[in-house]
Design a protein that fits this description.
binds pyridoxal-5'-phosphate, TIM Barrel, 39% helix, alpha/beta
């Protein structure tokens, strides 16, 4: 059972696009710099397609198996898919032909497997490095102090192109708290950009989810990843 109707999804999408636009303008940014991603985990493809019909052009997938099952049902014309979940090396082969970007690169081990599988299909994969900005245990992403080393290693791989950073901040009680993490991410992003590493681009900062995306936009986010605010609360019962 789905929590919301297609009509409700349409209204939610319009509301979110409007909020992003408004917030970007207030922050002195060009709204076109911020893309709204529909995060599709557990969501019926019909509702995902309802979001696409409202102008959403970017989907975020968390699980290889779920992506493979739903892939053919999406209306993919003009739509890109990014992988945003924790990615096991043995699942890389299943997804490299289906996604335009992997936002959750968090180890050189994973980078080498992406390199291998993309070489096999003659593709260069855009990636974001996932940073565990709150340095939480049991959370994916690398610590900020590990970033330089990983970037230098990944720069050697011909079938990966680093385009920026992604983060999921710790659960916060208020906007002020979460803004500190967004601010640190922005600083990290700027620092790396200034180092001008060969073969490393810093163009995309992916941060902000349903509860905090306006704050993320203020701090320079280029991709806000929205699930709940678009599709309602997830029903994990029976989810794959
Ligand atoms: C689920 C998820 C989101 C969306 O979270 P909401 O709070 O439902 O908007 C964003 N990013 C990642 C990596 C996720 O797994």
């Amino acid at each position: 059972m789905q929590a919301v109707s297609e009509q409700q999804v349409a209204e939610n999408v319009q509301q979110i696009l409007q909020t992003v636009r408004q917030t970007a303008l207030e922050a002195g940014r060009d709204p076109a710099e911020v893309q709204v991603m529909a995060v599709t985990k557990t969501v019926d493809p019909q509702l995902v397609n309802a979001a696409i019909a409202q102008g959403i052009t970017l989907l975020g997938e968390n699980k290889a198996q779920e992506l493979c099952e739903k892939y053919d049902s999406y209306h993919k014309d003009g739509v890109q898919i990014h992988f945003i979940g924790h990615l096991q090396t043995n699942k890389v082969r299943q997804i490299v032909d289906k996604v335009q970007m992997i936002e959750s690169l968090d180890s050189f081990h994973l980078a080498r497997e992406i390199e291998k599988q993309c070489a096999a299909i003659d593709k260069v994969m855009d990636v974001l490095v996932e940073v565990n900005i709150g340095k939480e245990e049991n959370k994916s992403g690398i610590f900020p102090e590990q970033l330089d080393e990983l970037l230098q290693q990944v720069a050697q791989l011909g079938h990966l192109k680093v385009r920026g950073l992604m983060t999921i901040p710790p659960v916060c009680e208020n906007n002020e708290q979460v803004s500190q993490y967004f601010s640190r991410m922005r600083q990290l992003f700027i620092d790396i950009k200034q180092k001008k590493y060969d073969n490393i681009n810093m163009e995309i900062l992916s941060m902000g989810m349903s509860g905090d995306y306006p704050a993320a936009v203020k701090y320079g986010s280029n991709i806000v990843r929205i699930g709940t605010a678009m599709f309602g609360h997830r029903n994990y019962k029976g989810a794959k």
